[in-house]
Amino acid sequence: MTQPKERDYFTDPTVLMDPYQYFEEMRPRGPICQLETHDCLLVSGFQECVEILRNPTDFSSLNSLASSAFPLPFEPQGDDINQALEANRDKYVGGDLVVTFDDLRHTNVRSLISRMFTPSRLKANEVFMQSYADEMVRGVVEQGGCELVNQIATPYVTMVIADLLGVPPADRALFEEHIAQGQTVGSIENPDSPTDMSTLEFMGGFFYRYLEERAANPGSDLLSELITTQYPDGATPDILELVKLAVFMFAAGQDTSAKLLGNAMRYIVDVPGLQQQLREDRKLIPWMIEEVLRLEGSSKATHRVARRDTMVGEVKIPAGKQVIVALAAANRDPRRWGDDASEFKLKRPGIREHIAFGRGSHTCAGAPLARAEVTTILNCFFDHTSSIKISTEKHGEPGARQYQFEPSFIIRGLDNLYLQLEGH
Amino acid sequence: MANVYVTDRQAHKQTIEINSGNTLMQAITDAGVADLLALCGGVCSCATCHVYIEDAYLDKLPPKTEDEVALLEVSESYRENSRLACQVRLTAAMDGMQTQIAPEE
């Protein structure tokens, strides 16, 4: 009897609809297994993912946007390919963005980000976030409902990061429009070029001008802080490096934060009793968000390439081998989370250790912002409604819901979520 | 070559070579010390890189920010020599410094 052919993680629409079932199909092959469809490893074990993410010495982030779907642009030779990787950096999509940097270049640029989303900074932004969320939610409650993802979540997170950075209000809608029209990262619909940078390139010219203006007249926003800051060794960053960083910070978190709100709302409505529990005790909202991040985080996977021959657990990984670090699989690994790993459970022990935002030196720096954004707007929804329902007309009955997901092998989130909102 | 020394929760002591410019958090995680969770990745938001610093070196460290103080003071394991390793950028002046990972909370 022939075995059924392995599904293609990068292009199969059934994997897009339910990546968790795919990961469970693959899990019996071991926490690290070779794919049949591509020359790369799938890492689904929690411990193994953490080990790789925390080992930048042996694993490069150069392919984190390009993914493991494509062969290396050179023939790896020997037990150490560091020089060849750097020599081919310009062949990688996003090779000039912080998310793909290694070593000193990463340390330097990351040092600039590390002060951007501190609690005091977010506190200072709280008034804007709260008032903007309140205004948006009031409006849709008056209408009796909304499409959450595009009507609320995306414009909300765009405005929040724009306010933090200091993007002029006049340009915000223009960027929002460009981001909405652009291709998702890791598109399954464009397998030859799943990630393109045209939206970031479009915004680059604008951010160059903003930074020049802030250099002449610094204000209190993040762009002013960026242009006046230095690397740890006292050197002044090149303005083009800052432009790329600012554009990336503006664009990178948008889709993932917006998707997190959609994913959270889906659980709030569909987990029996959860909505009422949260209404009665708002202090449970952060716990709910962490469990949603574990079960349905906005990033399914990131990617690494072995810089030299190494071992993860008992598995030998040769220099040049690419690995899919399957965050979503690790976050449901029964060895880490128990037999109920796939179930929603408030206040799950050790929940803060999930890897929805990654781990190690490339951990998502915007995670505190995403948590604050989602907490703030969910509180507004509870403030202004007595009941939130998912439209059965659009999505079907509970237990038989039908959803469309962003067609990406990186992002996990709803394309749309239609809600019915009952005011007080 | 400059080194710092880190003692984990099992009292195992490890020597770590310093690269100036790195944070103490990065140096400890790069050395494979699993006890230091460092969940937020160094953005001063989670306090899971809490360490104790040898008293003699405290004045060689950058001062604590309000954010760092706020996170440390709510820790049950807070001591006068507590620091968040992500907020300690390493310099050659820290050569020989002893550090200890704070208890898990």
How would you sum up this structure, described in words?
Helices cover 47% and strands 8% of the residues of chain A. By secondary structure, chain A is an alpha+beta fold. Chain A has one domain: Cytochrome p450, CATH 1.10.630. In chain A, α6 runs antiparallel to α7 and α7 runs antiparallel to α11. The longest helix of chain A has 32 residues, at 239-270. Chain A is globular. Chain B has 105 residues and is α+β, with helices and mostly antiparallel strands. Helices cover 14% and strands 21% of the residues of chain B. Chain B has two helices and five strands. Chain B is globular. Chain B starts with a strand and ends with a strand. The mean pLDDT of chain B is 95. Classes of the chains: A alpha+beta (424), B alpha+beta (105). The interface between A and B is medium-sized, with 33 and 25 residues.
Brief descriptors of the model:
heterodimer, A: 424 residues, alpha+beta, Cytochrome p450, five-stranded mixed β-sheet, 17 helices, 47% helix, globular, B: 105 residues, Ubiquitin-like (UB roll), 14% helix, iron (chain A), monooxygenase (chain A), Cyt_P450 (chain A), steroid hydroxylase activity (chain A), cholest-4-en-3-one 26-monooxygenase activity (chain A)
Strand tally of chain A, please? 10
Shape of chain A: globular
Structural class of chain B: alpha+beta
Using only C-alpha atoms, the radius of gyration of chain B works out to 12 Å
- Alpha-beta classification of chain A: alpha+beta
* Oligomer type: heterodimer
Largest sheet data of chain B: 5 strands, mixed
Helical segment count of chain A? 17
GO molecular function (chain A): cholest-4-en-3-one 26-monooxygenase activity; heme binding; iron ion binding; steroid hydroxylase activity
InterPro entries (chain A): Cyt_P450 (IPR001128), Cyt_P450_B (IPR002397), Cyt_P450_CS (IPR017972), Cyt_P450_sf (IPR036396)
Pfam family, one (chain A): p450
Keywords (chain A): Heme, Iron, Metal-binding, Monooxygenase, Oxidoreductase
